[in-house]
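Entry type: protein chain
Record version: 2
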Amino acid sequence: MNECVAVLNTDNGAGHPKGWKVEGREDLRKAMQPWSDGLLKDLNGGELSLDTTYDTDHGPFVLQGIPALDLWVDMSHYMEIHHKSSDTLDKVDGLDFKAGEAIVAVTAYAIAQSETPIAPHIDHAAVGEILNKAKLEELLEHVGVWKP
């Protein structure tokens, strides 16, 4: 995992993309801000959220202190079809899907071309502070994926 610079997750559906959730990491938000204000803003995907979540595939990376970006999309209709028989490709708005692809591609390219890592791996204590602030530490401990 030491070689992993960052994880970019896109498992929140194909709603209209807003930008990235930086999972409570102010250092990651600051690192992303120039790209968000420039490259991503022009794609209408330049917003950054400090919300911390563990509801999808980025969660285990967050627990290891790896910089995690979770594509922030409009999820207002997500639960209407999520994992139901009606969850079919015809429900995906092609423009929203392509906008999400563009945001991911531009972000991945910017990270890959950067001379320095986007943000450092943080230690267990720092991860615990983020989880505690987000009121996730007790839940994640209860389900057996986190030990303070």
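Comment: Helices lie at 26-40, 59-63, 78-81, 94-113, 124-133, 137-142.
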